[in-house]
TrEMBL record:
It comes from the Bacteria. This is Cytochrome c oxidase subunit 2A. The chain crosses the membrane at residues 31-53. The lineage of its organism: Bacteria, Bacillati, Bacillota, Bacilli, Bacillales. Keywords: Membrane, Transmembrane, Transmembrane helix. Residues 1-25 are annotated as: Disordered.
C-alpha cells in the first residue's frame, strides 16, 4: 500500500503537473535557439572557407 503524505495538498500535486508542462515549452524554445546559433556558426564557417578558397 502506498504511503500517503498528509502534508502534500491537492494544489501542490496540480502545481507539479503544471510545472512539467511549462518545462517542456521552455525546452522547445531552447532547441530552436540552439539550431539558430548552429546555423549562424555553419554560415560563417562556410563563408570564411569560401573566402579562403577564392584567395588561393
Amino acid at each position: 500500500m502506498p504511503k500517503i503524505n498528509p502534508n502534500v495538498s491537492q494544489s501542490q500535486k496540480v502545481n507539479k503537473k503544471v510545472n512539467k508542462s511549462k518545462e517542456e515549452t521552455s525546452l522547445k524554445g531552447t532547441l530552436i535557439a540552439v539550431f539558430a546559433v548552429g546555423a549562424i556558426i555553419v554560415f560563417f564557417w562556410v563563408s570564411i572557407f569560401q573566402l579562403y578558397l577564392s584567395r588561393m
